[in-house]
Write a structure and sequence with these properties.
- Two copies of one chain form a homodimer.
- With about 110 residues, chain A is mainly alpha-helical.
- The first copy, chain A, has one domain (about 10-105): Winged helix-like DNA-binding domain superfamily/Winged helix DNA-binding domain (Arc Repressor Mutant, subunit A, Orthogonal Bundle).
- Chain A is built from five helices and two strands.
- Chain A has a two-stranded antiparallel ribbon.
- In chain A, a hairpin with a 2-residue loop joins strand 1 and strand 2.
- The interface between A and B is large, with 53 and 53 residues.
- Chain A binds a DNA duplex (30 and 30 nucleotides) through helix 4.
DNA sequence: ATTGTATATTGCAATATTACGATAGAGTTT
DNA sequence: AAACTCTATCGTAATATTGCAATATACAAT
């Protein structure tokens, strides 16, 4: 096989997994961090910044966008990509919640 | 191709991407959440809990373990798996940090 | 020692991801 | 309009992931 059985899990589980998967590649982490670093968020810079070809970066941007981690708006003939704070907040909350729950437990190992 | 060019990115970027990738599957999210839910952390339960065959779960557990998200200790003929709080903390910090940096910026889009 | 239970490993088929050259589309500039 | 810039899409090769049956390993209990 190879297809993941997304239908067997809850929507929330699938949702978090999708976000995590989108971040599961160093190039996409690097794109995210670059978007944080610079104040402008034109995409052309990213191609010069990362050691990847333009189509590859375009593809990674698409995946980040599909996952809802970034959003892009057309700005002349360039595209203004930036991070979607809500989605980052969702991830932040998720891990914070786990940490809180773990504190309340006596970890048995 | 298909191999990701990990050598072109920083150690920290690769490290976060590895963690995210390990969480990038609903079954592994479900395993994590199950480990939080129950107080005991014997693995046998997980096989009964998830709609996946035992070898598949064993494989997912291995990936979570390799990523440092869970740790397992042998307990008789069962294995006691539990979450590694440090790694969750690392993720929590990472997203918290991004959220803080985004607050300080005027998001241009 | 044999049987039973819990977990890991192997091998393999189906599918997904990654990367990029070539090309296309869309706006800008001259 | 022609040339240029920026980004997306297509096609395709290399590689990785997913899932499971079969099998192996390791300990426990009888």
């Amino acid at each position: 096989m190879g297809a993941s059985k997304t239908d067997h899990f809850t929507d929330k589980q699938n949702s978090i997994a999708t976000l995590a998967k989108a971040l599961g590649h160093p190039a996409r982490i690097a794109i995210l961090e670059y978007l944080i670093k610079v104040d402008t968020c034109i995409c052309g810079d990213i191609v010069n910044e990362l050691p990847l070809a333009q189509p590859t970066i375009s593809q990674h941007l698409k995946e980040l966008k599909n996952a809802g981690l970034i959003k892009g708006s057309i700005e002349g003939n360039a595209i203004c990509y930036c991070i979607d704070e809500k989605t980052i907040g969702k991830l932040q909350d998720y891990f914070k919640n786990i940490a809180i729950k773990l504190e309340k437990k006596n970890n048995c190992c």
